[in-house]
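Thread: "does anyone have the structure for this chain?"

Original post by V.I.:
We have the sequence but no experimental structure in hand. Need at least a predicted one for the grant figures.
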Amino acid sequence: MEKDEEKTVKLENDQEKNIGEIKEETQEEVRQTRKSRREKTKEDKRKITFIIIMAVLICVVSVFSVIFAMLNIKNTNILSGIYVLNIDVSNMTKEEALKKIDNIINEKLTSDITLKYNDYETIVNNSQFGIQFDNQKAISNAYNVGKENNIVVNNYKILFAKLHKINIEPELIINSETLQNKIREISAKLPNAVVENSYYIEGNKLIIVKGKRRK
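Reply from O.Q.:
Generated one for you, tokens below.
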């Protein structure tokens, strides 16, 4: 009888011990769960804060970009940092820039150059070669930099022009006939020069006459 009572008491003690261990494990799990939730909440808050900050920055940059681009579109002058033939036309109107470029290029195109061949020397004016530049188109291209419909492209070009420089090369226009005639004229005057080959058409035949050395 006493043994049965001892077994019963021992069993009850074991049950209480197991229950106590289970309670401790449960409490530990609860603490871990709460800790995980707190950490997750903090992490979520950090992510949300980061997203909000980035969104605000993007909005601010976008607003300033739009304002910057709109102000530039209304700008009636050429951007700062724009060059034509390496000539600075920054902050000029189209008329001012065209006048400046025309004056500089015309001065060069109407200047004299000296050609030398052995003892032979002659002076030729550049205007006789039939060479011109399309200054009007070059100035229009310079004026339109940063004034396109794409705001992103405009802002990029504006910043690039300010940090570096954008040089626009005018289209070179050559009057081939005038140039060839002038070259022939100069060649014919050179001592011991070779007269250029000539040709003529006789019926359906092409007759080529070989050039001869001048005496």
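V.I.: this helps a lot. The chain has a mean pLDDT of 75.
O.Q.: and The beta strands are 82-84, 87-88, 112-117, 120-125, 131-133, 166-168, 172-174, 198-202, 205-209.
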